[in-house]
Model the fold of this input.
Amino acid sequence: MFSILKFFRWISRKIMIIGGVLLVVMVALTCCDIIGRMFGYPIFGAYELVTFMAAVVVAVALGESHADDRHVGVEILYNKLPEKVRYILDLVTNLLALALFLLVTWMMFLYGRSVMESGEVSMNLELPEYLLIFAVGVGFFIFSVIIIKTIIDTFNRMKER
Done:
């Protein structure tokens, strides 16, 4: 079981690199589009591409951000609570997050399949939208597995105390 979780953590790190590359491409594309617009030559479909890449960047960053505890949190009151209460809060929030993101993952794949069957494409570039939806679904799935690992780690820390 732990080797599977380590594998997903490894995958999470690798897709985070893809997200970083997409972020750089988004910046470059936006800059080129703005400069092109100044001279009357905007890049056709730039807005569409940046929107697609932004969705993928967010989805692939979730898992690694959660694994490294880099998300934004309000810890003023949390840090003053007893350790046992903090573990319980961590478990409850991670269990709720797991339930939510498993549901979102499932719905993304169902939605992606329906979009694929309908043949929907993006408005300007006519790119198949289901690819984006499946990519986001994969990101959410990996995030869900990372949440499971976090829950297991929290249980293990509780046992040690």
In short: The mean pLDDT is 92. The chain has four helices and no strands. Residues 2-38 form the longest helix (37 residues). The helical segments are 2-38, 46-67, 83-118, 129-160.
